[in-house]
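Subject — a protein and its fold
Encoding — discrete vocabulary of local shapes:
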Amino acid sequence: MCLAIPGKVVAISDENGLKMGTVDVNGSLIKACLEYVPDIRIGQYTIVHAGFALKIIDEKEAAESLEIWDELLRK
């Protein structure tokens, strides 16, 4: 099973020829490889798994997913 966490891209950089980003996941900043989503821009949302951004999602989908994560963590 793949668990991917939504987050908002707050910075993009080039590291050793790889497109990398800083992603805000519920207030925690994580580093993620953006090579699988080359068109992503600062301010867009993505889902991150194992340090890789997998796809671009809209803000509504990100909010719904974060709400589900919050429910799971409260149990």
